[in-house]
Amino acid sequence: MESKGTATLAQHFGIEMQVTEFMGKEKLGRRIVDESKKVWEIAAPAILTAVSQFSIGFVTCAFVGRLGDVELAAVSIVQNVIEGFAYGIMLGMGSALETLCGQAVGAGQLNLLGIYMQRSWIITGVTALFLTPFYVFASPILQLLHQDKRMSELAGKFSRWVIPQLFAYAVNFPIQKFLQAQTKVWVMTVLSMATLGFHVLANWVLVTKLGYGLLGAAIAGNISWWLLVLSQTVYVVSGFFPDAWTGFSFAAFKSIAGFVKLSLASAIMLCLELWYYTAVILMVGWLKNREIAVDAISICMNFQLWTLMIALGFNAAISVRVSNEFGAGNPKAAKFSTIITILTSLILGAIFTIVLLATKQEFPKLFTGKQAIIEEASKLGYFMAAIILITSIQLVLHGVAVGAGWQFSVALVNFICYYVLGLPLGGLLGYKFDLGVNGIWTGMLLGCFLETIILVFIVKRANWQKEVFRAEARVRDWGGSPLPQQGSLEHTIND
Fold it and tell me: Residue 24's CB: how many other CB atoms inside 10 A?
C-alpha cells in the first residue's frame, strides 16, 4: 500500500514538474517574442530613416554625374572626405543623448529630455562652427592630399555652398536621439522618406531643367536637409511631447562640461570606427595596379554599406533598450534584451553572408562591366562576408556600450585593435609580404575580430547592477531627481 502511494505521489510530482517546465518554456517564449517586438519597433524605422537620409547623397551624385566626370569627382570627394569627416564628428557629438535620454526615459524623468536636447544643440552648434573652416578651405586641403587641382577647386566651391547642411546636422542628430529614446520614430521615418522624394524632385528641377549645375545640386541639398530638420522640430515643439518638451530653458547651459566629455567620447568612438575604413581605402590606393584594387574594394564597401544599415538599426534599438532598462533599474531586462538583439542581428548577418557568398561572382556586375574589376571584387567576397558577419555582432555591442555610457572604454578598444594592430598588420602583409589588397583586408578583418571578442568579454564581465546605480547618479547629477526605486534591483527576467 505504501509502495503504491509512493508511486502515485512520484507520478503526481512528475506531471507537476512537466507542467511547470512547460509553463516556464512558454513564459520564456513569450518574453522572447515581446522583447523582439520592442527591438523591431525601434530597429525597423531606424533602418528606413538611415537609408533615406543616406540616399540624399546618392541622389545628388546621380544628378551631378550627368554634368561630367570632373563634377561627379568633385561632389564625391566632398561627400566622402569633407562631409564624411564632419558627419562622423557631428553624429558622434549628438550620440551622447542616446545614453542620457534613454536613461532619463527609463527613470521616468521625461522633463529632462528637452533640456538634454537643447544642451546637445549648443554643443553640436559650436562643433559645427569649429568644422566650418574645413568646408571653407576644402580646395587647399584636397590639394595637400595630392588631389587633382581642377577637381579640388570645383570641390572647394561646392563645399562652401553646402555649409548650411553642416548646421542642419547640428540640429538633426539631437532631435533623432530625443525621438529614438521615446521610441517615437515612425514620424521621423516618414519625414525622412518624404524629404528624399522632395530631394529627387528638387534636383530634377534645379540641375536638369533649370541647368544650375553644381550650384543647383547644393541648393537642393540645403533645402532638403533644412526641410527635414524644420519639420522634425515642428513635430517636437507642437505639443506631441508635453512631458518631454516644456520649452526653451536656461537649464540647458548647466552641466555643459559633463555633456561635452560624454559627447567627445561618443565622437571619438564613432570616428575611430569610420576612419578605419577610410584608412583601408587609402592604403589600397598606394598599391601597384591601384586603379583596379581601389575600384574593387569600393564595390565591396558599397555592398557592405547597405548591410551596415541593417546593423545600425539594431545598434540604435539596443542602445535605447539598454539605456531605458538601466534608467528604470532593470539590469537583467537590459541583459536579456542584449542577448535577443545580438541573436537577431547575427541571424540577419548570416543571411546576408550566405547571399553574398552565393552571388560573389555576380554582385560586382551591378557596379561595373569591366571583367578585371569584377574578378578582383569577387576574390574579396570571402573577406567581405566575414566582415559582414562580424559587424552584425560588433555594432550591437557598440549600441550596448552607448546605452550604458561606456563610450570612452570602447574608443580605447577601437584605437588599440584598429590602429595599433589592424592597420599596421594590414600594411605589413600588403606591402612587405606582397599580399596586396588581400593582406590589407586580412589586417582589417583581424582588427575587427579582436575588437568584437574584447567587447563580448566586456559585456559578459560587466556588473549590470552597478550600471543601474551609475545611471541613477548620472540622471540625478545632470538635472533629475533620484530614480524611483520600484524594486529596481529585484527585477529579473522571470518577473
Answer: 11
Contacts of 125 (CB under 8 A, 6+ apart): 167, 170, 171
In contact, 117 and 479? CB cutoff 8 Å: no
Q: Do residues 164 and 225 lie in contact, with contact meaning Cβ atoms separated by under 8 Å?
A: yes
Buried b (16+ CB within 10 A) or exposed e, 208-230: eeeeebbebbbbbbbbbbbbbbe
Closest among 171, 397, 440 to 283, alpha carbons compared: 440
Angle between helix axes 256-284 and 407-414 (nearest 10 degrees) is 20
Cα Rg, the chain, nearest whole Å:
25
Count CB atoms within 10 A of the CB of residue 10: 10
Do 303 and 363 meet the contact criterion of CB atoms below 8 Å apart?
yes
Q: Which amino acid is at 443?
A: G
Helices and strands counted in the chain (H then E): 19, 0
How far is residue 74's CA from residue 255's CA, in Å, rounded to a whole number?
41
Per-residue pLDDT of the chain (495 residues; tens, 9 = 90+): 445 555 554 555 455 555 455 456 668 888 889 999 999 998 999 889 988 888 888 888 888 878 877 787 788 778 877 887 888 888 888 777 888 888 888 888 888 889 889 998 999 999 999 999 999 998 998 888 777 788 888 889 999 999 999 999 999 989 998 998 888 889 999 999 999 999 999 999 999 889 898 999 999 999 999 999 999 999 999 989 998 898 888 878 887 887 788 888 888 888 888 778 777 876 876 777 666 776 677 677 767 777 788 888 899 899 999 999 998 889 999 999 999 999 999 999 999 899 888 988 887 876 667 788 788 888 888 888 898 999 999 999 999 998 888 888 999 999 999 999 999 999 999 998 988 888 998 999 999 999 999 999 999 998 888 888 888 887 777 654 444 444 433 333 333
Q: How far apart are CA 64 and CA 208, in angstroms?
A: 9
Which of the 8 DSSP states describes residue 82?
Answer: I
**How many CA atoms are closer than 13 Å to the CA of 440, on its beta-carbon side?**
22
Task: Report the alpha-carbon distance of residue 29 to residue 224 in Å, rounded.
Answer: 44
Task: Give the span between the Cα atoms of 480 and 110, in whole angstroms.
Answer: 9
Output the nine-digit C-alpha cell for 332: 537583467
Q: Which three cell numbers stand for residue 102?
A: 534613454
Residue 224 region, left (φ>0) first, then alpha (ψ -120 to 50), else beta? alpha
Write down the H helix ranges in 204-212: none
The CA–CA distances, whole Å, from 436 to 161, 294, 441, 442 equal 39, 11, 9, 10
320, with CB counted inside 10 A (0-12, 13-18, 19+), is: buried
Contact 413, 453 (CB under 8 A): no
Place of cell 517546465: 21
| Dist. CA 252–CA 479, nearest whole Å | 10
